[in-house]
Amino acid sequence: MRIAVVTDSTAYLPQQLIKENNITVVPIPVILDGKTYDEGTQISTSEFYTWLRQSETLPSTTQPSIGEMVKLYRKLGDQGYDTVISIHLSSTISGFLSNLRNVDDLVPNTHVIPYDSQITVILMGEMVLTAAKMAKSGKTVDEILARLDALRETTDEYFIVNDLQNLVKGGRLSNASAFLGGMLRIKPILTFDDEHKIVAFEKIRSLKKAYSRVEELFDQAVKTTDYPIHAFIIHANDEAAAITWRDELQAKYPKIKFDISYFGPVIGTHLGEKAIAIGWIKDEQV
After folding, report:
1. What is the pLDDT of residues 111-140, one digit of tens each?
2. DSSP string, 217-242
3. Model pTM?
């Protein structure tokens, strides 16, 4: 059995890991001033945030076409893969995965399994990487899916954002009404709820207090977790802030592995520039 692993560009995995583990990445389109660009191939993260600062219009995103996905899956089938595990951003963020539910009927030469990561960014990327390594080592589909299910249960993330307007406009903030009043004067903390929807968790009056509160929440999680975690500081074009926060947290938690990742154009479209987050997942390397 040969298993291919497919994901979308919001996994934000380093190119070297993508290549080494034979991962196929489907770019998600982002729309800027009426023009469509494929994330990661037609527009870079730095180009996107430069545009975002200069433009008076809000960006938006769309989905890869089903036709493109069917073509990709058939190509993988022609290459000898009898199964494709296609891991994508949470179905509560995008309808992309839902549109793949019946694609297997259109691909006669391989079996396509769409998989909901229930999250996005590098936390999804870590799930993708685990699946790809398992496929490479000869694990079965059932073994890979079971590991993904277990790993998915260990993900968590808290975001600090400067502006809720695009999340609200795009309908991706499920409890927006409670946070609209005076939102320009607060630094809201967002997270994924039990239904895997992005929700505004708390209103915080300053950036310093927002950082402090997120650190409290992270500390609570660390104290109640009985497995090693891999933590990430994820930033929207603010690497200096991410490095500073990473270094501070690493000093407080020397046994935890911290790395830095980023919000690319598609997720940055909804969170805005200077958003920052801490996310974590079970450390599969320990």
Report:
1. 999 999 999 999 999 999 999 999 999 999
2. HHHHHHHT--S-EEEEEEESS-HHHH
3. 0.92
